[in-house]
Amino acid sequence: MGEQTVENYSDPASLRLFVKAVLNDLRALEHMIDSGMIESGVRRIGAEQEVFLVDDHWQPAPLATQILDRLDDPQYTPELGRFNLEFNLHPISFGTDCLSKMEHALSRHVAKLREVAAEFGAKAVLTGILPTLKQSDMGLQNMMPLSRYAALNEAIKELRGGDFEFHVAGIDELIIKHDSVLLEACNTSCQVHFQTGPEEFAKLYNVAQAVAAPVLALAANSPVLFGRRLWAETRIALFQQSIDTRLPGRHLEDRRARVSFGDGWVKNSVLEIFREDVSRFRAIIGMSIDEDPFEEIAQGRAPRLKALQLHNGTVYRWNRACYGISEGKPHLRIENRVLPSGPTILDEVANAAFWFGLMSGVSHTYPDITKVIEFDTIKSNFLSAARYGLEAQFTWIDDQTAPAEELIRHQLLPLARDGLERAKINQADIDRYLGVVEARAACRRNGSKWILRSLASMKDKGTSAERFCAITAAMHTRQQTDEPAHEWSLARLEEGGGWKHNYLRVEQIMNTNLFSVHEDDVIDLVANMMDWRRIRHVPVEDNSHRLVGLVSYRALLRVLARDMPHGQDNPLAVRDIMQRKPITISPDMPTTKAIATMRNAAVSCLPVVEDGRLVGLVNESDFVAIAGQLLEDQLREV
Predict the structure, then answer these.
(1) What domains appear along the chain, each with residue ranges and CATH number?
(2) pLDDT tens, 403-435?
């Protein structure tokens, strides 16, 4: 997806030409494999680091274009969101000091990025999902203005035929609709690459699949999205749903999502993956192809296979097969897309070292991993790891079951250590990075667990927005130390910067834990809800969850004062006393404007509405509580 000249082909003839080029590239790749052109006997590793940009208030900062222009370095590249960017490391030979080289390169690039971002009042944060993200940040105004992203968004929307629907259930539950593919920008990762020869590709790819679950459980770092506590690695569910082109309700069709783990082992060749993906997933974007791969081969040059690579970039396997050219020689590699960004560079390299070691160690101990474990088992393990992280329970070789922590420490770490030693990695580096893995597993505290424990420690302090700001600020501060995340102290509320950062917009203070009624409900239900929940306003929604009215405590008192005749045979309905068309505000409204609206309209409650649907309530009591906190802070200073 690195090409800039991508188009959403609405002309069928142009799309047919592009697909023909994809098929030609596949034939060329088959020829190169059969004729021994693909590099073999060489092992290189690499990494792609994605980051979030935040402002002084720890909110997403859509400054990627300006920062990339200022960096003026081809290793730094744009991502889907204006508040994301990525940089790529040069390939490193797998052996001796490759792991410490990777850590130093990542540190150097992050330091350079932070230095330039500071010129624009921004900071770089390494995290799988930014805790302070809100759905309002996901508007198209925050999509990078590049043709490939616009084309991808239009193509996927056309295939879906409607809005994107998301449903993820964890500790909390998130059910939302969105009108673009931009929710993909909620995810950032640290993708690592492992070069293989064509003759060993199938064997190593199957190992990558088998070990994906324990690697993910260890590295999980994304437990929250839009203020909800979901999966240990919510990226897995979110990414699949953000790129899903399948239509809901078609249960009889056995179609695979464009983001998937896969459905079976690779038997012989990388060509199986490319052929299956070309067969299953229609080309949704294309480009003009000016290369004849067979002509390039005849001239003694490695073809770029641009059409095949572009199509491959729109199918998102968690372990992706990649074709590339290094030093003029074509090669194959496995891209691990499972690993999230953060919590620290040290943690990321420890994750990578664990994966690299397992790729080498497991493939040596089990020459054919498919003979000792079922594919459905490893797929089930993967979903369990995404949901529960280090709390997951796995089924491993010969149907033995074990908690993630036990499997990692007692079986997989020795295999990873053996694999790194076989690759002649420096012993000090093996001890350093696998030591982080072992300690993290022993205390069962990855980045995801640190975030959840930090939130729990602040449960009764501040607003939800304050707590997520504190998490983000604490991550940024601790990432600049030498401590891995399992040694971090928990985030403290005051680290978020205080009230000035957290009461700026309505969505930061509104109450989203709502109790609503229908206009046909009996008014007695409202009275009891107010009593039980100690609330003074109850919103009224229709069957489509659109706001149609508001019942206030005063309205109930007026009913009692008039002593209106009603009884068991003819009880009052909500519609009889509700205020129709109440004054509403939007979640992105400045808090000062909401206060002015409440004062000028002489109301004590404002429903917060987005696209006609109720998303929150702001009450006069919310501002009283905030004012009390601010007064207390000021008096304490005096």
Answers:
(1) 12-443 (3.30.590.20), 507-637 (3.10.580.10)
(2) 999 999 999 999 999 999 999 999 999 999 999
